[in-house]
């Protein structure tokens, strides 16, 4: 490797000068030996002592997956490749276009190298069914769908094949947790593995009733309660909230309704279970807030309750033009 040889006392000034003139080869480390430094250069230059010496190459981490695939995919294929992905603990979940299905193994290997995780899976279906899971295909690494995801000083254990979990709701979970007051009595109608309850109970002295129809999810919630040191209490219940609620003998200060595709079907039940001045954290898929606000207010009228909208926000994009929206309503008796 062609290098500039300079005394150590001039090394930093020479390095800066070569960089400013675009003459320094940035792919190699600077080497020092005895009283001299050796800086790799792109071409021979006048005014310096030039020597030939072995230098260590700088290992650079790729900026994105496409850098690792530039020799495997065409420019058009790289454009088609969705470089966004979900990381859940040690697992990466990819979405690969149909036209790149024949390259899925190479894409999986590149993703594994880039993310430094243990397993890579590919989405094979949309989220479906009452237990909200999707089909996944193993691509690279170790075929182990069980992992522990860390979020806001909590640990959430889950099996990505058997339960629903979105790391993209991390900010929303923290926002709801921060809005909770100590001593609240909370109902999570569709709790899954307990991501909302665990984050909330980690930092708040509250009582949470956590319901889900997926028994696997509730089993993981029980494990997650043990994994985390919680200030609050969580009571997990397996079952359909419509049936489970028949045994409730109390009302709740807050009800969380994070089932965006179907939550509107349960608004009447929520209005019946909410305490006066209580908060409903309601979620749905929509292109705006108007539909959800109207649904909340319509349900409130049936029970002679006023709905004060105290917050709205877009949680994440669900599809082009559609959002996973959040609407917080304070429910008051008229």
TrEMBL record:
Matching Gene3D superfamilies: 3.30.70.2580, Met-10+ protein-like domains, Vaccinia Virus protein VP39
One Pfam family cited in the UniProt record for this chain: TYW2_N_2
Keywords, ordered alphabetically: Cytoplasm, Methyltransferase, S-adenosyl-L-methionine, Transferase, tRNA processing
Keyword Cytoplasm: yes
Alphabetized InterPro entries for the sequence: MeTrfase_TRM5/TYW2 (IPR030382), SAM-dependent_MTases_sf (IPR029063), TRM5-TYW2-like_MTfase (IPR056743), TRM5/TYW2-like_N (IPR056744), Trm5a/b_N (IPR040601)
PROSITE patterns in alphabetical order: SAM_MT_TRM5_TYW2
Glycoprotein is among the record's keywords: no
SUPFAM superfamilies: S-adenosyl-L-methionine-dependent methyltransferases
EC number: 2.1.1.297
Enzyme class: transferase
Protein name: Release factor glutamine methyltransferase
Organism of this sequence: Methanobrevibacter oralis
UniProt lineage: Archaea, Methanobacteriati, Methanobacteriota, Methanomada group, Methanobacteria
GN (gene name): prmC
């Amino acid at each position: 490797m062609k290098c500039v040889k300079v005394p150590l006392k001039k090394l930093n000034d020479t390095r800066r000068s070569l960089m400013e003139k675009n003459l320094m080869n940035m792919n190699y480390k600077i080497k020092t030996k005895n009283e001299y430094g050796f800086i790799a250069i792109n071409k021979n230059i006048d005014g310096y002592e030039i020597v030939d010496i072995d230098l260590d190459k700088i290992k650079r981490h790729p900026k994105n997956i496409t850098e690792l695939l530039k020799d495997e995919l065409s420019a058009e294929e790289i454009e088609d490749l969705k470089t966004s992905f979900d990381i859940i603990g040690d697992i990466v979940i990819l979405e690969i276009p149909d036209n790149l299905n024949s390259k899925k193994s190479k894409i999986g290997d590149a993703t594994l190298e880039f993310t430094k995780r243990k397993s890579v899976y590919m989405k094979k279906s949309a989220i479906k069914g009452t237990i909200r899971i999707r089909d996944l295909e193993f691509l690279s690494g170790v075929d182990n769908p069980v992992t522990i995801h860390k979020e806001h000083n909590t640990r959430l254990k889950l099996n990505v094949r058997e339960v629903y979990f979105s790391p993209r709701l991390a900010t929303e979970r923290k926002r709801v947790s921060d809005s909770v007051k100590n001593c609240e009595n909370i109902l999570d109608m569709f709790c899954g593995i307990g991501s909302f309850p665990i984050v909330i109970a980690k930092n708040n002295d509250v009582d949470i009733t956590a319901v889900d129809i997926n028994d696997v999810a509730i089993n993981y919630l029980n494990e997650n309660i043990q994994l985390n040191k919680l200030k609050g209490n969580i009571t997990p219940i397996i079952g359909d909230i419509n049936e489970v609620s028949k045994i409730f003998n109390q009302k709740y200060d807050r009800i969380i309704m994070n089932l965006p595709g179907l939550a509107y079907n349960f608004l009447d039940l929520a209005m019946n279970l909410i305490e006066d001045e209580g908060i409903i954290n309601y979620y749905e898929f929509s292109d705006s807030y108007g539909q959800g606000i109207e649904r909340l207010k319509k349900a409130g009228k049936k029970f002679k309750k006023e709905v004060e909208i105290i917050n709205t926000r877009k949680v994440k994009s669900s599809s082009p033009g559609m959002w996973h929206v959040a609407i917080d309503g304070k429910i008051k008796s008229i």
